[in-house]
């Protein structure tokens, strides 16, 4: 019985600390350091859990099932990770290159390489324009004029336009594996280079833009607003932040690098592809240089992404709790305003009058 109680205490303490960490994160307790407070509480929640499991395993007489099945668990986990990586690198949706002639593929690749260079140049120009107006993107939103907000939306719209074009190129040529590797090796490699170059350019510039904006939450809110005239979708900046830290992005970055190295070893590239090869090679290292110089940008993007995803589920709960608090009376005392007073006031009311009310003795007013 004592063993069961101890185990419940450890587990309860662990869940309590986990809940506190989420509460701190959602309520921004201790702002601006609330994120690290939440992380500390979350890491601390593992301590009682580990002690509880360790104590439980020490007392139980049966053998540890993990030890018995550890090989199956390890191999199963590796298979799942491998399957995920393969699904990311070789998406099964779409048939861009199935049933297409060699001439058609060559034409599309030539056109897309031209479009790739144009979009990469456009994205760089858009980022340069944003940097030239850096004071707007680092300014408090409350201090921005209407003209300045319009300027920000226009600059952001140009950036998004080129970024989406690169994303479309990446999605199209992410199916490079549909081009026969053995009969059309050059086309297969060039298609991959288009996809990876578009990905690298978008990721590099997203990191730079994210570092520029920093933790300006109000500006992020402005950039997340839908602006149809400028071609900006809703939650556009949130998508950018999510993409920076998503597992899919990390897999594409590193697995793409491995495939690039494999192609370098097994294929002879033409001079026509030299620019793309050099760009991909340099772009990969630029990503890690940016992350190395300011790793906090990556953690900020992760926390923001996590907060937004969690808030989707947290807000309805918070809303219902607040509503219920407004219905819980904490005193048996009567209201200060009596029924006859309300009736008398009603006779003096006219259309358009605004009435402000306060309900005393309810939990929502406590404190």
Briefly characterize the structure:
This protein has 367 residues and is mostly helical. The protein has helices spanning 2-27, 34-59, 65-89, 102-132, 134-137, 146-173, 185-213, 217-223, 236-245, 247-266, 274-293, 295-325, 339-347. It folds into three domains: 2-89; 102-317, no CATH class; 328-367, no CATH class.
Describe this entry's structure for a reader.
- There is one protein chain.
- It is extended and about 90 Å long.
- It is an all-alpha fold.
- The chain folds into three domains: 2-89; 102-317, no CATH class; 328-367, no CATH class.
- The longest helix is centred in the first third of the chain and has 31 residues, at 102-132.
- The chain has helices spanning 2-27, 34-59, 65-89, 102-132, 134-137, 146-173, 185-213, 217-223, 236-245, 247-266, 274-293, 295-325, 339-347.
- Helices cover 72% and strands 0% of the residues.
- It has 13 helices and no strands.
- α7 (185-213) crosses α9, α9 packs across α12 (295-325) and α11 packs across α12 (295-325).
